[in-house]
Amino acid sequence: MKLTAESEVRMKKCMWNTAYDLQILKNFGMKCRKLKFVRVKEIFFTLPLSNQLLLCCDGASRGNPGMAGISTRNPVTRFSGKGELVSDVVYTESIYAFGNEGYIRGPIDLRPISFGCATTSNFLKGLGEGAKGVAGLGRSSRLSLVSQFSAAFPQFRRTFALDLSGLLIYFGGGPYIYSYGTFFGDLSKLFHYAPLLVNPKSKEEYFVDVKSVKIHGKTVPIDKKLLSINKTTGVGGAKIDILKPYTVLETSIYKALIKVHTKWAKGMNVTRVTPVAPFGACYKSSTIPPWTSKPGSVAFIFPKSEWRIVWRDLVSVNNDAVRCLGFVDGGLKPKTSIVIGAHQLGWFMEFDTSRSRWGFLQPESGQQ
């Protein structure tokens, strides 16, 4: 017994602090050891990216073959809650070639797709009437429909396109067959492109490489640091967010934009009126000259292209008697300096993550 007690200095492990442990230590004349606590934590795992295999080797799932847990989120109300990971079969119809009517519809294919099902009754709150859920279109999530369709259909690129006027989503790339005015054919042939950037702190979102902003050809003075993404904090840069009705700007950018635009308006004898919330610059509609597409009243400048916003820079209010500059103040320290909203985005665009580029239409290409 004495030898055992003297050898306790060689003991390095912890005790569980049970009555049995304490009794043994007392019998051998040993001091108490460090405790080992057991903490029960609720965790959710992130599905792996395409072509990656997730290996769970910590034994956490041993003897637990039940439903996998997942976190669900409503992007409108920002409500997050528990959910279940389930699988079901979807069918698709492919547009794969031109025919007499402009395209030929391919056969219907069935593929298994994973879904996150919310277990809370208020998850659909704030969504449109008749909505049954939310389609995830994030860049890197394994549950994103972009990732799942590109994995299920080998011919699909990690690409999707949005038709906001017809409420349509295309997966896998074009052709996008449309007819308007004298044009009939594939819209993708009219695309201009801007680089898509990855924000290390917001990998699911779509950031674009905005270098500057112009109003009727005049560059808006902007601190360049605000247009770049801080790799450590993820703060700064510009992103696209169709959930925002109007483009949101960091305060200094917003004030600079208002200043340049109102100066232009004064030079064109446009009558400025009392602002209508949430906008900061409003004008009497009858004094605004007709718009032309060159130069666009507001333009975002990218490394090798520019995106001219014509007709969508102003918002009609008060029965069209007043038109306001459709940009709002996002505060002094927003996470993202420029958030391009739905009103400015127009009606059709493509997100091609396989090539890290965003495709958009210029005003003269029918973007209204």
| Average pLDDT figure | 80
Structural class: alpha+beta
Measured on Cα atoms, how large is the radius of gyration?
A: 28 Å
**CA-to-CA gap between the ends?**
90 Å
> What is the 3D shape?
elongated
Please provide the count of β strands. 23
Helix content: 10-25%
What is the H/E order?
A: HHEEEHEEEEEEEEHEEHEEEEEEEEHEE
The strand order across the widest sheet is: 5-4-22-23-8-9-12-21-13-20
Q: Profile the largest sheet.
A: 10 strands, mixed
- Tally of helical runs: 6
Spans of 5+ residues with little confidence (pLDDT < 50)?
A: none
What fraction of residues sit in β-strands?
25-35%
Descriptors for this entry?
elongated; 23 strands; 368 residues; ten-stranded mixed sheet; alpha+beta; four-stranded antiparallel sheet; single chain
Task: Tell me briefly what this model is.
The protein has 368 residues and is an alpha+beta fold.
Topology:
Elements (H helix, E strand, L loop, with lengths): L1 H5 L12 H9 L41 E5 L6 E18 L6 E15 L26 H8 L6 E5 L4 E4 L5 E4 L2 E4 L5 E6 L8 E3 L3 E4 L2 E2 L4 H4 L10 E3 L6 E3 L1 H17 L4 E2 L8 E3 L13 E4 L4 E4 L4 E4 L4 E4 L1 E3 L8 E3 L1 H4 L2 E5 L4 E4 L8
Parallel strand pairs: 12-21, 13-20
Antiparallel strand pairs: 1-2, 2-3, 4-5, 4-22, 6-7, 8-9, 8-23, 9-12, 10-11, 10-16, 13-21, 14-15, 15-19, 16-17, 18-19, 22-23
